[in-house]
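hiii, so i know i said id send this last week but things got crazy w the move. better late than never?? heres the sequnce for the chain we talked about at the cafe, plus the structure i predicted for it. fair warning i was half asleep when i ran it
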Amino acid sequence: MTGALRADHHTALSGVETSPRLAASLSGDRWTLRASVGNGFSPPSPADQFFQAGVLVRPNPDLAP
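okay and structure toks below
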């Protein structure tokens, strides 16, 4: 079993974002079972920070309910 913790600091955000991860491995004679779970952090892009984009939805009038 392996555990990890990553800390990220971004100037546009206040504080530190942490990303934990846990992994485990179980091996037999002819097989290996691996599993992992974790949480990630992605800093906002300049477009996310400075632009507001809306979603435009146009319905199809030919569709039946």
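btw DSSP finds one helix and three strands in the chain. thought thatd interest u
miss u guys!!
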